[in-house]
Specification:
Blueprint lengths: L1 E5 L2 E3 L4 E3 L3 E4 L2 E4 L7 E4 L3 E4 L1 E6 L1 E2 L2 E2 L6 H12 L3 E9 L3 H16 L7 E5 L21 H7 L6 E6 L6 H9 L3 E4 L6 H9 L4 E2 L15 H8 L4 E4 L8 H10 L5 E3 L14 E4 L2 E6 L2 E4 L11 H10 L5 H8 L1 H7 L16 E4 L5 E6 L2 E5 L2
Helix pairs in contact: 5-6, 8-9
Length: 378
């Protein structure tokens, strides 16, 4: 199938261009010309690279932990497609090994059948720090065993990300995971600076939701935050919802890190895409929604009612970044972290046609994954 998208403006991942047609054939970007015989689809707005979210717990009323199935993954993907997400990692927070195994089986099937947008899986836990557990259930936090290693090291799960606390997982095990192809992120950790540096030397390459659930930066104890901001090579996920990170703290990190090492994440929960959902249950605890904020009844922040398009807008409006950089934080930089920037994250010849149409307020009008329209705003 061949067709051409034409909008007022196009952002290719680096620069904005006016009135540039994009011809798509067999799911890939074939040319930046109008192709002979191709159907033309004209839009008002801006075409941008699709958004990539490496931390998605839920959406559309579904939570991956509660229902570790392909149907759940597809419900989550459909909910986030409305907001420009074209690639995501279904994220399982700390749970028992049986649920982890079911989640892995579901992801393997979703990857095999090419479910729209599914890139792999993110296991956030269970090898975390109890003092920095947040809403993760303490009863499931544990030392790593052969059972979890066997799941993490499966080769049929697409891209694998594991968040762990380096004070509870040795550099030797981190190195083993990395050698198996796992991308190790550090988070939910109370580690000291030296322990974090040792984990980075062992191959860890990311930090999960910077500032949140990690030992803070102090003048004599740099902690996880200090090591994360200092590192020139590691990527940091950033939740820009106005609740998890103060805009000033976010700006400090952005100015300190090399360009390209900060990426937007949602840490999304079931209410995303569900305007009428006010609460849900997480491991027997009620999580309440008040506006765009989620809190457990015990007081902790419990993930987000955040989507990637809102994260982009917040990055522009709250942090003062140019739109182009906010878009890169939502597409190119996570693609580079995941090692897939040769196929997604830009609008370039041969790239997969993951393309989002935004209006002048940066709201999503349309979403194409591999050239297939998965969402068109009514």
């Amino acid at each position: 199938m061949k067709f051409t998208l034409i909008a007022e403006q196009l952002f290719d991942g680096e620069s904005f261009h006016q009135d540039v047609p994009v011809t798509i054939e067999d799911g890939l970007i074939a040319s930046f010309d109008t192709a002979l015989g191709a159907k033309e689809v004209r839009y008002t707005g801006t075409l941008v690279p699709g958004f990539i979210d490496v931390q998605v717990n839920g959406g559309g009323g579904a939570l991956f932990n509660t229902s570790p199935t392909v149907a759940c993954i597809e419900t989550i993907g459909k909910a986030h497609a409305r907001f420009g997400t074209t690639g995501f990692l279904p994220t399982l927070i700390t749970d028992n090994v049986q649920v982890m195994a079911k989640a892995a089986d579901a992801v393997a099937l979703a990857v095999a059948q090419k479910s729209a947008g599914v890139l792999g899986v993110h296991f956030e836990g269970p090898h975390l720090s109890v003092p920095k557990k947040g809403v993760h259930p303490q009863g499931f936090i544990r030392e790593i065993t052969e059972a979890e290693l066997a799941i993490f090291c499966r080769q049929d799960l697409g891209i694998r990300v594991v968040t762990l606390a380096p004070e509870n997982v040795s550099p030797e095990v981190i190195r083993l995971l990395v050698e198996s192809g796992v991308k190790v992120c550090l988070g939910h950790s109370n580690a000291d600076y030296d322990t974090v540096v040792a984990a980075l030397k062992a191959g860890a390459t990311g930090f999960t939701h910077l500032y949140n659930a990690m030992s803070p930066l102090g003048s004599r104890e740099p902690g996880v935050v200090g090591a994360a901001i200092e590192s020139e090579t590691a990527w940091c996920g950033l939740i820009v919802d106005g609740h998890h990170v103060h805009p000033a703290a976010a700006r400090v990190a952005l100015r300190s890190k090399p360009r390209g090492k900060m990426m937007l994440v949602t840490d999304a929960m079931p209410p995303v895409g569900m305007d009428d959902e006010t609460s849900f249950e997480l491991f027997g605890t009620q999580v309440l929604r008040v506006g765009d904020r989620l809190n457990a009844v015990t007081g902790e922040l419990a993930g987000c009612v955040l989507d990637m398009a809102s994260a982009v807008r917040n990055t522009v409006n709250m942090l003062g970044l140019p739109l182009g950089e906010a878009l890169r934080m939502a597409s190119l930089y996570p693609a580079e972290f995941l090692g897939i920037a040769d196929s997604v994250g830009r609008l370039a010849l041969g790239q997969r046609a993951d393309i989002v149409l935004l209006d002048n307020q940066h709201q999503v009008l349309a979403n194409y994954i591999a050239g297939n329209a998965v969402y068109i705003r009514p």
